[in-house]
Amino acid sequence: MLDVVVAVVTTALTNGALYALATIGLSLVWGSMGMLNMAHGGLLALGGYAAYTGSVQLGLPLPLAIVFAMLAGAAMGALLHLLVVRQLLRSSGAGFETAVMIATVGISIALQNALLLLYGGQPLGQPFDVPGSIPVGAGAVPWLNVTIVLVSVGVMAAASLLIARTKMGRAIRATAQNRDAALLMGVPVQRVYLQVLALSGALAGICGVLVSSITQLTPTLGADPMLKAFIMCVVAGLGNLPGAIAAAFGLALVEAAMQFAAGARWGFPTLLLLVIAILIWRPAGLFGRARIQRL
Amino acid sequence: MPDPTGAAVALALKDVRAGYGGPDVLKGVSLEVPRGCIVTVVGPNGHGKSTLLRTVSGLTRLRGGRILALGAEIQDHAAHRRAAAGIAHVPQGDLLFPDMTVLENLRMGAYLERDAAQEKRRLDEVFALLPRLAERRTQVAASLSGGERRMVGIGRGLMAGGQVLMLDEPSLGLAPLVIEQIYEVIARLREQGRTILLVEENPARVAELSDVMHLFDDGEIVWSGAPDDLMNREELLATYLGG
């Protein structure tokens, strides 16, 4: 019995950490610029492959290969802003939310096919690995899972400190809460958007490395985490970062428990059922609130 | 146009036109705000007074004309660069950062200020002028009363240390007692020699404060002059403001 509990908790914490990491990148972009980035999964895959290139092809040490993956994600996020988002903001006005969603679906497809062309369709092994495990009672917790959780939590803590404490973070929050007011304060809103997309890209980059370390490298490796990230965002209330992280760990636990209790194929339907129930009960999400503006 | 102080012009609009896709809302507006003066634009609601301020701060796109801040043309600058040029706009509806505390909102006002000591000095000034904000400094903006929100908006505008403070209907939606408090604050700002472009609906409320008044109707300035002259012209007030 104990070994089952250990296994379920290990899976839940690992997946929860990965979902949370995928979610905050997505939620940050949505919360600050009203942009649903459908290419977020593509950025995850890009990060995974960038670490492979850094480590296997360029011979970088693993920590540097991870930094390389984050830089690749950040660069792609910045490019996304310069080439697509900035133009759409200028041209599509009130239709921006729809336009950017469609545009990023296209970018996601292009990104996946570029990876397919560069690396081939055969799944590759992610060089990032931590061998060994810690025996816990009758079961064992692999060091890789422990590392994934610790790295994810560390990265999320760093990201929240950046947003809570730095001047750049204040500008991001101000822009998210009231774009016009931020402009009146002299905040260069376009530069803030660039920073947000680069930051989100870097988060996606490292998330992709971690995800592929427990699965493998394929051009579509980001699809499942991104789908889960959408679910977490919706459950928590779009744009709510702490809520999204809590939802990620909570739902990962439900998913893992269900998979062990009823079989792997019941995990995802259970998640969806829960989402439907939560949205009926609280349409703005678990921690979301309908905005009340006092005059 | 009368210029009571003879000082340099802090803000000048020359034949400014603007709109929102349809016909022009501003149909060629020219006015000057001399340094150290309070210039007031009064007129009925829905005739473009807010658009006037939004066009100066860059939130509404200019269609024609020129805007000069301390003599430098700023009409082609993006909104965030106009703040750097010294335009501090306290917009209608306050537009606070709802999830930030009072202190964070005020500090956002000084976003462009790189000198921390200068920011601290301005914060002390704002708290001296609006002591209620010091009491509420850790409270989230969304939880404030209407009057307190207005004070945060004004305080945030002052934190920028700009050349011109533009106040858009500071009395809007407030109880009479609170309106009095807000106008006491504006009177204090006048004593400090601030340069203010003020927009109001009710001329009686601002006549005492103003150096120059402009009567604004349907996107145009229809009369300009000293406050006393306007208040003595009953036919003007009756025509444009319904008495």
Could you provide a short overview of the structure?
The complex is a heterodimer of chains A (295) and B (243). With 295 residues, chain A is mainly alpha-helical. Chain A has eleven helices and two strands.
Q: Which features characterize this protein?
A:
heterodimer, A: mainly alpha, ABC transporter involved in vitamin B12 uptake, BtuC, 2 strands, globular, B: 243 residues, alpha/beta, 6-stranded mixed β-sheet, 4-stranded antiparallel β-sheet, disordered N terminus, ATP binding (chain B)
Give a verbal description of the structure.
The complex is a heterodimer of chains A (295) and B (243). Chain A has 295 residues and is mostly helical. Chain A has a single domain, classed as ABC transporter involved in vitamin B12 uptake, BtuC (Orthogonal Bundle), CATH 1.10.3470. Helix content of chain A is 75%, strand content 3%. Chain A has eleven helices and two strands. Chain A has helices spanning 2-33, 40-57, 62-92, 96-119, 143-165, 167-177, 179-184, 189-214, 223-236, 241-262, 267-281; strands spanning 133-136, 139-142. In chain A, strands 1-2 form a two-stranded antiparallel ribbon. In chain A, helix 10 (241-262) packs across helix 11 (267-281). Chain A is globular. In chain A, 49% of the residues are buried. With 243 residues, chain B is of the alpha/beta class. Chain B has two domains: 1-86 and 163-175 and 191-243, P-loop containing nucleotide triphosphate hydrolases (Rossmann fold), CATH 3.40.50.300; 92-161, no CATH class. Chain B is 37% helix and 26% strand. Chain B has helices at residues 49-57, 79-84, 102-109, 116-129, 131-135, 146-159, 176-191, 203-206, 227-232, 234-241; strands at 9-19, 24-34, 38-42, 62-69, 72-73, 87-90, 164-168, 196-200, 212-217, 220-225. A six-stranded mixed β-sheet of chain B has the order 6-7-8-3-9-10, with helices on both faces. Residues 1-7 of chain B have low confidence and may be disordered. The A-B interface holds A 167, 170-171, 173-174, 177-178, 180-189, 291-295 and B 57-59, 78-81, 83-84, 88-89, 91, 93, 95-100, 104, 107-109, 111-112, 142, 145-146, 149, 156, 160, 173. Chain B: Residues 11-243 form the ABC transporter domain. Chain B: Belongs to the ABC transporter superfamily. Chain B: Pfam families: ABC_tran (PF00005). Chain B: Keywords: Amino-acid transport, ATP-binding, Nucleotide-binding, Transport.
